[in-house]
Amino acid sequence: MIIACPSCETRFEVNAAAFPPGGRKVKCARCAHVWHAASPAGIPATPVEPALHEPPAEMIAPPTVMPPVEPETHPEMIWAGSDIPPRKSGRLATIGLAAASVAVVAAGLYIFRDAVVAYVPGVAPAYAALGMPVDLTGLELTIEAQSMAASGDGGTKLVVKGSVANPSGEERPVPPIRASLLSEKNAELHSWTFDAGVKTLKPGETHEFTQELAQPPADTYRVYARFADET
Known about the structure:
The protein is 15% helix and 31% strand.
C-alpha cells in the first residue's frame, strides 16, 4: 500500500500487513514528521484503549521512496514541416554574410580598377601581379609581327613590328614603350625601352613602329610590350 506524509507529501510504499486494524503511528523517513496512519481499507478497526504512556512511534523504512508525481507539462510545439524553413545557425549566417561582402568588394575593385588606380596609383602593381594590368594612357598597344633576320655583320637580328592607336575622343600623349623578350615558360630574357616615334595621337589615329634588336637570346619565344609608364 502507499501512504503519504501529511507534512512533506512524500509518498511511501509500505507493507499493509504491518498495520493493525486500528492503524499505527508512522515516522517519515524524509522529514521525521510523526502521524497516525489509518489501516488499509477492508481491515476493520478496533477501539484502541488509551495508554498511560504512549509508546514511541515506530519508524517504517520503506524500501522505495516515491517522490510526488507532478503533472507533466509540455510547451507549445511547432511542427518543423515543409511550410516552416529550418532555422540557420547564427555562425553560418555570419560567415555567409562576410563571404558575400568580400565578393561584392572584390567585384567592385575589378570593375572599377581604372578609377581605383587613378585615385591610388600605388595599387597598380597589385593589379598587375594578379594579371589585371591597368592602362591609364587610353591607348592601345599591339605587337603585330616578330621575325628573325640576318644582320649586316653576319649575325641575326630580331625585327618587331607593332602599332599604337588612340580609340578615345581626345588627343593623348604617347609614352615610351617597354619591350620584353620572353622564353617559352614566360621567363624574361631581355628588355629595353624605346620611343614609338610620335609624341601624341589624335582621336582615332594609329601609328606603326618597327624595332630591331641584334643578337637576341637564342631561346626567345615571343615579344611582350607595354607602355613604360604602366606599373
